[in-house]
Each structure stands twice: as C-alpha cells, then as structure tokens.
Design goal:
2 copies of one chain form a homodimer. Chain A is an alpha/beta fold and 416 residues long. The first copy, chain A, has helices at residues 10-13, 20-31, 46-59, 77-84, 93-105, 112-116, 153-170, 191-196, 199-202, 229-247, 260-270, 285-290, 309-316, 320-326, 331-345, 392-415, and strands at residues 2-8, 35-42, 62-66, 89-91, 119-121, 125-127, 136-141, 144-149, 178-187, 208-214, 217-226, 251-253, 275-279, 300-306, 349-355, 370-377, 380-387. Chain A has 16 helices and 17 strands. A 6-stranded mixed sheet of chain A has the order 2-1-3-8-7-6, sandwiched between helices. Chain A has a 5-stranded mixed sheet with strand order 14-13-15-16-17, with helices on both faces. The longest helix of chain A has 24 residues, at 392-415. Chains A, B: Residues 4-171 form the MoaB/Mog domain.
Chain lengths: 416, 416
C-alpha cells in the first residue's frame, strides 16, 4: 500500500516553522512497511487543498494529513476533506463532551469556536485526541483512506502511535499484521564503517535493517512484520543478537527510547559511581547532556567550566608549567583537568574536554577541530585525541558525543 | 510571481532527515515577496519527478528544486529537468575546470562520476558552487523558470543568497527590484503581548512586518522592496525605529545575524566585564550558549555546575542553613549562588539558575517548571521567579533564554 503525506499550514509555506511532522510521519510509515512517494505542503486554502486531495486520491492508497483542524476560521482541512468525499458535517456527541471536559478540567472557558471542533464528516471514524481538542478523523472513499491528524506534535505523535498505526496495520491486504522494531544503537563508530559490516543484513526483507546516522552514533533499526507481535519479535530477536555480536561493546542499547546519556547514567548507577565534568570548548554542553536524564542527581553532583587557563588552574589545579609547555589544548592538560576534577569534586568518574572549536584559534600544528579529552575512572586515566570536521557548533556537538562515548568505554574497561 | 519548492531525495521520504531546506527556502522566498502555495517532496525517481515538474510548471511561475545533483546514479534531478524541458546535456567547460580545481585544492582524487556533474542542459544558466562540486542551474521554458540547487545546506544557502536571490529580484515584471530586511529581536516579552502592540504595523504592505516566535524571544522581520537598495533601506528605517521606540530595552538587536548570546557578550565586552555562570537544573546549558559566541574567552572564564546541594555549598558557598530552611529551589539559594559564584570566580557579572525541570521533583508548593534565577552585577543582585511550561527539555531551554535576558537587563540597569 502507498501512503502520501499532506501537511497543511500557511506557517509551513512561509517557512516560519520546520516540517518536523512530515519527517516523523515518514519514518513511522516506513517502519510500518508503507511506501511513500510524495509529501506535499499546502496552505490553509480550500481550493488548493481540494486539488491536492484529488491528486493524492488518484496516485496513493492512503492520504495522511496533518494540521488545519484547529478552532479558527483559517482551519478548513476537515471541511475540505468532507467536501472532496461528498460528506456533510454533523456534530459528534462524544467529541463534544470530550472537548467540554478538556476545558472543564483545565478551568478554561470554552468558546463557540471550539464547538466547531466536534463537527465530523458523516460516516467518518472519529479518533480520540487525549492531548487536545481536535479529534482525528478517518474517511473512506472508493477503497482509499483520508486520515486527518491535528498539527501540534504533542497531539499528533501519541494519536498516531496509539490509534493510527494499529489501524494502518489492520488494512494489510494479507490480513491484519503488526510491526515490531528495535533499534541497535552504536556509539564511537563511523557510519560508513558500520554500513560496511551490515551489507548482508541490509538485504533482508523481514526483518529489515535500516541505518540512521546521528552525531557520534549510528542507529540500526530492525523491523519485522507478522500476524502477531510474538511472531514479529521472534523475527527481530536473532538479528538484534547478531548485530550485538558484530558490534560488541559499541552497542550501548537495543531499546528505542534509550539515549546515549541515559546509557551512561545507567552504567554509573549500576556501579554506584558519581561523575563530574570539566569542560573548556564545549562550555558546559557535556554536563548539559548528562542533565537531560531525569534522576541524574544520584550520580552527577558537580561540573566545572574552565574556559580560561586561570580557571583551569584555579578550579581543577592544572599546573602552570603544563599550560605553558604544552598549551591548553594538549593531552597533558586534558589529563590534568580530568585528574583535578576528580580531586576537586570527589567524583569516581570525570571527563575533560579541551579543544579548538573555531572559527579562530587554529594553527597548522593545532587546527580547528582538534580536541583532547581525558577520562578518569577510580584512579585510572585515559587520554584521547580527536580531529572533528565542521563549524564551531558541529565540533562542539561531536565533542559532547565523543566525551560520553569515551566515559562509557572507560567505565566498561574498569568494571567490564 | 508564484514560486513552488520541490525537494528531491529518498532520505526525505523515509524520514531519515528533516526538510530544513524547504523551511529555509520558504522564508527566503517570502522575504523576496514571492508567493509560495505548494512544497513537494519526491524521491530520486525520474518518472515521478517529471510528473511533479509538469504539474508545477502548470500552476507556478518558478520552480525551485533542491537535491539530486550529486555524482551518483541515484541523482537524476538535472537529467529529468532537462528532459521535461526538451534539452540535451552537454559538458560545461567552466564547471569541469572548477570541479577539477575543487579536487586538486583538497588533494582528493576526482572520479569519473564527478565529471558527470559538469554536464548541463543546453541553454541553461550555470551558477557557480563555491562550496561543492555540483553547479546550480537555471532553465527557462515558456516564460517559466526551473532553478536547480544542490541539496547540502552549506552549498544551497550561500548559492541562494549570493546568486539566486538577486536573479529572482531581476525577474520582477515591474522592473528589477531589491529586497532589504532587518530583524528587530525582542527578548523577555511574550508573543501575544508583542503582537498586540504591532497590529497596526502588521497591516503595512511595504515594508511588511512579520513576527517569528522563538524560545524566550520574538523576532519582527521588517522587509521592504524597492528599485534600489537605498530606497528599500529608507522604507525599512522608520519602521525599525518605531519598533525600537515601542519595545525599548527589550530590543536586543536590529541586525539579522546577531543572537541573544552575541548581544550579551557584546554588552559585557563594551563595559569591560567578565562573567561566570552557576547552574543547577540547566546543568551547563547557559554557559554552553555563551560559549556559542566566538571570542567569548575575553569575558567568560569560569562556570560552575552545582547540581547537588553539596556542590552548591562547596563550589559557591551557599549556606547550609539557607538550603535547609528555604530549599535548593528558592530565591534565597539563587541569590547566594550568584553571590558565591562572583566571589569564587572574581567575575563582575554572574547568573545563577536553580529550578525543577521535571518530570519528577515537583510539589504543590514548588511545581515542575518553577525556576529561580539571580544576577549579580558589580555588587548589585537581582532575583527573579519564573514558572515555565512544558517538558524537561522545554523548561531548561526556556530557563537558558531567560537567564541571558535577565543578565542583559541587569547590566543595562547598572550601566544604562
């Protein structure tokens, strides 16, 4: 089956916002095994939207629309879809009472506009919205489907995951099926290197293996389709196992929702370790990523940002001679920063980052993108040299990912 | 004139990447006074792309395509556009020598594939690519234009700004014109409040005034169109002045490229001030934003991340009694953090952030999203209370913007 994404909103046409809904829906549809050949953005204009809907119905089996279900005059996705399908709008009692409840719960006043959101095309399937006032809608026309979703991602995403994905799977002409996927997340290896090691697995058809490159990480999504979840899981399991075997310690998780910082914090907690950071060019961003993890306070107590040489000396006791002889961006300074942070904070694990993020400050000997890091784990120290590419923001982002990866690797080195 | 954006790439259809090109191009086209009614994404498929091109030529004056100009077999945007326009491809000597030079300069080996990138449709205008190997191309067909741009943003953006925007302006049927725009950037005021103060200006047609909401900021873009830049500037100037008058100190810049952290660092440099941060729930992100600014080392030396109570006491000397009596998230603690950071770092200006980012840790009295900040400027201290909405990431992002805004406000308070 083919699906087509249609995002409705003048703010998209004006470039006021980036179309993250399209990317998210596209990824979900691909995981569901649906082929998507077209994505369209169109404004809140009935005539143009109707044209796009008619074209879409000619060339695709399922149209998924997002946006334009709001309470204002501008919002006319529902009205236009109903018109294209030759349906009238009628008030849906259940939706109305849910909208009334939504406002009551929040102590807000419901306006007449909001009542409009309870109007649904005759014969449409109404999909409850647990996070907003506009219900989702599914219309059928000559064996094709038009699915209308609210635009705000915090409404669209849970509605799609809980209601629309199962619905789409139920349409499978080979009988109802489920999709099950797991993501093998790899840190510290490059994209091309990872891809070279999985060419055989990329040729599989069920489960499929698809790589997604992230900063400092590669995610391999393993997706299977089967009549029942148990069966789909059974197909995914051996491939995940094989990937774990091939990539060994570079795999930091096989769970979709776990991030690299989650994995590092989990590892610290597992071994009862506390952690501290000492950062120069990343200026607090490595600590900032650790603090993404709710409950990090059990392990992360203190961080140092030592941007100047003086701060490196004063806060974490880097020696004046070290700075003079080797410079602030050197393996020696990185090492003393990590050791000094351990001493000053009392943490079991520390990581230091010192480098040249650019655009200025580079030299032939120490070019922009050169970053040294050190990691201290219970008395042991490792120092690593990195040469990153890209602008200031990229160098810093890559450094943060590398710092987390280094920390993880060193803890595993000590604790196995 | 109407423009239509067509982004080519299977990775967009699969949701592997977010379509930031479309948003960027849409914003540029809007600023150029071009109306855009459709954006389409299509894969690297000749038949479907040809269909999209034909539909586009029927309904729009100008088609702007991005992507699919690479050296591989997959890349067929140029070939398909040439075919739709009934043109042959011929080797462009200038492009070939530029591609050869590109590889020579970088000490890389040029492959036969890359030679393909020097093929251009007969009669096409060739646009130099200063940051890659694929030249841009402009094709004319029956008074309509097809503009082909490379997909990588670091190639597309400079090419559009330097070459395509002036070309588009030269097409104006009322004679060549230029666009000039300035952005009045406002911090510390909400979007609805700002909009309420500019309803009269939003009704203007030349210049136009368009609001863009950012985290903790609202940007008002003032854009004029005229035969000459001087004239366009003359139209923009009084409106920018009027906006500055209305929003006073809340305007931190009227320059398009200046960020809030740039403005804060500039203000610090102007008054010869050094700065330090002390962060709890933001965990280094406020320092991280300051360190976005190249050359920040003149003013930013030291930052503290005091996530635990112990770190608050040890690093910046918050009193045990203060923490016990008022708690870590309190105006008193925020105040002592800012004062303590000033003492420990010797900085002239410090900002502290302590709050509950969630999802846990909230209470009836101190709910998730409650954040206290204090700012120290040369002996003076201000404390502020914020109640932010959203998840952990949103609360922290909003806190960082508010911390920069607070710092700026306090420095202005002291130094005028």
């Amino acid at each position: 089956m083919t699906v087509e994404l249609i995002c409705v909103g003048t703010e998209l046409l004006l470039g006021n916002i980036v179309n993250t809904n399209a990317a998210w829906l596209a990824e979900q549809c691909a995981a569901l095994g649906l082929s998507c050949y077209y994505q369209t953005v169109v404004g809140d204009n009935a005539q143009r939207l109707a044209g796009i809907l008619r074209t879409g119905l000619e060339r695709s089996d399922i149209l998924i629309l997002s946006g334009g279900l709001g309470p204002t005059q501008d919002d006319l996705t529902k009205e236009t879809a109903a018109q294209v399908c030759g349906r009238k709008l009628t008030e849906d009692a259940r939706s109305l009472s849910r909208i009334e409840e939504y406002f009551r719960e929040r102590g807000l006043k419901m306006t007449d506009n909001n009542r409009k959101q309870a109007l649904v095309p005759e014969g449409a399937l109404v999909v409850d919205n647990d996070n907003g006032t506009a219900p989702g809608l599914i219309l059928e026309k000559d064996g094709k489907r038009i699915i209308l979703l609210p635009g705000p991602p915090n409404e669209l995403i849970p509605m799609f995951e809980k209601k629309i994905a199962p619905y789409l799977l139920s349409l499978d002409p080979d009988g109802p099926s489920v999709i099950y996927s797991r993501t093998v997340k790899i840190c510290g290896l490059g994209e091309s290197g990872v891809e070279a090691m999985i060419t055989d697995l990329e040729a599989l058809s069920n489960p499929t293996v698809a790589p997604y490159a992230k900063t400092g990480e590669v995610h391999l999504r393993v997706t299977a389709r089967a009549a029942e979840e148990k069966e789909a899981k059974k197909l995914v399991k051996p491939v995940v196992k094989e990937l774990e075997r091939r990539f060994g310690r570079s795999v930091y998780t096989t769970k979709n929702e776990v991030t690299l910082e989650d994995a590092v914090v989990k590892l610290l907690k597992k071994h009862g370790l506390t952690v501290s950071t000492v950062e120069s060019c990343t200026g607090g961003l490595a600590a900032g990523r650790l603090v993404n993890v709710p409950g990090v306070s059990d392990v992360f107590k203190t961080g140092f940002i030592t941007y100047s040489n003086k701060a490196k000396r004063k806060l974490v006791g880097v020696k004046k001679e070290t700075l003079e002889r080797y410079g602030a961006v050197s393996p020696e300074t990185a090492r003393e920063m990590a050791l000094g942070a351990a001493k000053a904070s009392g943490a079991d694990v520390t990581v230091s980052v010192t480098g040249i993020a650019g655009p200025d400050g580079g030299s032939e000997e120490k070019p922009v993108g050169l970053v040294y890091m050190a990691c201290f784990v219970c008395g042991n120290v490792w120092v690593e040299r990195f040469q990153f590419k890209g602008n200031r923001a990229k160098v810093r982002e890559a450094s943060v990912a590398a710092a987390l990866t280094l920390m993880r690797g060193c803890i595993l080195e000590v604790f196995g």
